[in-house]
TrEMBL record:
Domain of life: Eukaryota
PANTHER family linked: METHYLTRANSFERASE, METHYLTRANSFERASE-LIKE PROTEIN 27
Taxonomic source organism: Ciona savignyi
Pfam families given in the database record: Methyltransf_25 (PF13649)
Start and end residues of each Methyltransferase domain: 62-155
InterPro entries attached to this UniProt entry: Methyltransf_25, SAM-dependent_MTases_sf
CDD domains on file: AdoMet_MTases
SUPFAM superfamilies: S-adenosyl-L-methionine-dependent methyltransferases (SSF53335)
Protein name as it appears in the record: Methyltransferase domain-containing protein
Length: 220
């Protein structure tokens, strides 16, 4: 069963375009995440609780980029987050699952592209996060500049990046953008936590070459 879930989650994505993949996958996505032990949103909620002393204040506003079916929103609420949560995602069917949860205020159907501004004003959010989606078939590293633009000064940006034997070029570009945002005084790194990509995969792959790094940056 886990083998099939792994195939649906990873092998299938290169065989069609990303929007179509997730529109077709929406009904089974959460079942496969549970089966494989997907934990990026959970890890990120833990990190945000550590860096935000006012985590449970009801005036906080979160933007969940590539929100998918809303696992992050659900975990934030379970962790006693009382603020507003908005989401953006390119797949209507994934967003429909998120909408059914009744947790998100606004859910925007939009593909995040490297050369296109998010349809959001500057400095709207206390927290901007992006889980499961910083990789070649998903969101390109250039989008980090938009994460910064829509986050308030003093706010947090959290995202996770999967390292695989094939992610070198993507990660190199991401590292360049991270550095340029640091050098221009736009953000600073507060936390970086490395963990197994999925519990299921951990025993089966070379953990030195395939893992996830969760980052939290502060908007300066
Ligand atoms: C692996 S899922 C992650 C969903 C959710 N963040 C989670 O952790 O469960 C990837 C999501 O990213 C969305 N996505 C992929 N590329 C995107 C893009 N360029 N712009 C907007 N959404 C995108 C997909 O539609 C899908 O819902």
């Amino acid at each position: 069963m886990a083998e099939e879930a792994w195939g649906r989650m990873f092998s299938a994505i290169g065989q069609t375009d990303t929007r179509q993949h997730y529109n077709d996958y929406a009904a089974k996505y959460e079942q496969d995440c549970a089966c494989l032990g997907y934990s990026e949103p959970e890890e990120m909620v833990g990190m945000l609780k550590e860096v935000l002393p006012n985590f449970s204040d009801d005036h906080l506003q979160v933007l969940d980029i590539a929100a998918g079916t809303g696992l992050m929103g659900e975990l934030l609420r379970s962790a006693n987050f009382k603020g507003v949560i908005d989401g953006i995602d390119g797949s209507a069917n994934m967003l429909e699952k998120a909408r059914e949860k009744g947790i998100y205020r606004n859910l925007i159907e939009e593909f995040v592209l490297p050369d296109k501004a998010l349809p959001l004003k500057d400095q709207m959010y206390d927290v901007t996060c992006c889980l499961g989606s910083m990789s070649v078939p998903h969101i390109q590293p250039e989008a980090l500049k938009e994460f910064v633009r829509v986050t308030k000064t003093g706010g947090m940006m959290g995202f996770a990046v999967v390292t695989t034997p094939r992610s070198g070029a993507y990660e190199q570009k991401l590292a360049e953008i991270v550095k340029s945002l640091e050098n221009s005084g736009q953000w600073k790194n507060l936390k970086a936590i490395k963990s197994a990509i999925f519990q299921y995969n951990f025993d089966k792959i070379d953990a030195e070459k395939t893992y996830t790094t969760h980052y939290v940056f502060e908007r300066l």
